[in-house]
């Protein structure tokens, strides 16, 4: 998987303890007022027959409008479990507007936990529905509310959900370009965003960069984004450092791709700046500070060895993952960013969607899978133009840059 660390760089340990560094690689600090939680476990729904599933779905949707908090919470949990855990576009077809309307109704009166579940549900709905400008437009007001929350965790979920909505629902690349500019302001160290929101903003930029006109966008914004990401490598937060490193790798990869002909990274990054960047990446790729938890060091070294190889040598990552009966190979940072975002949206329902959701087979072509049932679903439920629409925005995955 990893490309290796070709030469020793920056062996010296950075002085002092990073205040706020996590005990493990999966932890990320949050602002006061946030509820720090692990991703919710999905209720098992794949064993239900269609009749039982529809009954459970209708009851859950009805419960979203109940006054009792416990009833609403149970409804949200079931809705998320069905949307994320089992691809069922027929259920969604007649009730997406209702669910989104219920989630919008919880913006002012709902609890923080309900809003967080709402953000997760919207992200999963975007992946289930696919191209739908009207769905994105309908959900946009509530997503903006989430983004502006004082809760670091809710803001992060809102940023991730909105980026997913733009990535899969919107065909106009101008929206992605404009949102990346917004995201850069959120991730800036001078903003009031907490570490979760900052990391989520940079992850969202990595997701959306491949679907914008790269030459025109980089000519205006490459230096700003690279400065943002480079400064973020010094963050005391593990998730922020990793998101910054992956963003840097994605930028160098995209800036060197055939699609970026006419854009020269060397015009944006002089030798001194490149050496300083490589030194920072080298430090992170060889982290040995005793003040950093062992698991964090191990994970960080693995990630930043790949990042360093991409910036230094133009090497891309190479990761093969078996999901269900299919095996997928990711050989670009763009594809990995998309996979990470989809995985975060679908939680433990990832395998079910990879098996039945034609959107994911359009985004991530597999090297061995029985596509007969998927082809039938694609023509009957999605329409014959699905592939043509997705090819325009997602060609980067098929070609592996």
TrEMBL record:
Pfam families per UniProt: IFRD
Region listing for Disordered, in residue ranges: 1-34
Biased composition (Basic residues): 8-17
Interferon-related developmental regulator N-terminal domain mapped to chain residues: 38-312
InterPro entries noted in UniProt: ARM-type_fold, IFRD, Interferon-rel_develop_reg_N
Ranges of compositional bias, category Low complexity: 22-34
Similarity section: Belongs to the IFRD family.
Protein's name according to its UniProt entry: Interferon-related developmental regulator N-terminal domain-containing protein
């Amino acid at each position: 998987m990893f490309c290796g660390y070709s030469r020793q760089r920056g062996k010296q340990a950075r002085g002092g303890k990073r205040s706020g560094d996590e005990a493990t690689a999966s932890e990320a600090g949050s602002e006061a007022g946030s509820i720090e939680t692990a991703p919710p476990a999905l209720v098992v729904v794949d064993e239900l027959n269609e009749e039982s599933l529809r009954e459970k779905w209708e009851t859950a949707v009805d419960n979203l409008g109940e006054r009792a908090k416990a009833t609403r919470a149970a409804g949200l949990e079931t809705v998320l479990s069905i949307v994320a855990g089992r691809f069922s576009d027929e259920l969604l077809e007649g009730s997406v507007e209702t669910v989104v309307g219920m989630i919008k109704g919880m913006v002012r009166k709902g609890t923080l936990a309900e809003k967080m579940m709402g953000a997760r549900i919207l992200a999963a709905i975007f992946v289930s529905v696919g191209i739908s400008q009207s769905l994105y437009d309908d959900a946009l007001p509530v997503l903006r509310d989430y983004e502006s929350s004082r809760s670091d965790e809710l803001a992060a979920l809102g940023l991730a959900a909105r980026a997913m909505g733009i990535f899969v629902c919107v065909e106009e690349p101008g929206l992605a370009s404009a949102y990346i500019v917004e995201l850069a302001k959120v991730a800036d160290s001078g903003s009031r965003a907490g570490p979760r929101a900052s990391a989520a903003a940079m992850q969202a930029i990595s997701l959306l960069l491949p679907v914008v006109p790269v030459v025109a966008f980089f000519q205006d914004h490459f230096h700003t984004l690279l400065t943002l990401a480079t400064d973020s490598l010094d963050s005391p937060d593990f998730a922020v450092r990793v998101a910054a490193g992956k963003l840097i790798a994605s930028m160098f990869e995209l800036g060197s791709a055939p699609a970026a002909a006419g854009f020269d990274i060397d015009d944006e990054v002089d030798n001194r700046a490149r050496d300083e960047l490589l030194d920072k990446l080298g430090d992170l790729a060889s982290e040995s500070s005793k003040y950093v938890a062992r698991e964090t060091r191990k994970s960080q070294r693995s990630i930043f060895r790949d990042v360093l190889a991409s910036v230094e040598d133009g090497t891309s990552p190479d990761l093969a993952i078996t999901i269900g009966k299919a095996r997928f190979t990711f050989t670009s940072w763009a594809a990995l960013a998309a996979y990470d975002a989809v995985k975060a949206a679908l939680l433990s329902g990832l395998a079910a969607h990879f098996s039945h959701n034609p959107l994911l087979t359009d985004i991530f072509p597999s090297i061995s899978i029985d596509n007969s049932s998927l082809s039938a679903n694609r023509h009957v439920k999605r329409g014959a133009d699905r592939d043509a629409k997705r090819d325009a925005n997602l060609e980067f995955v098929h070609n592996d840059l």
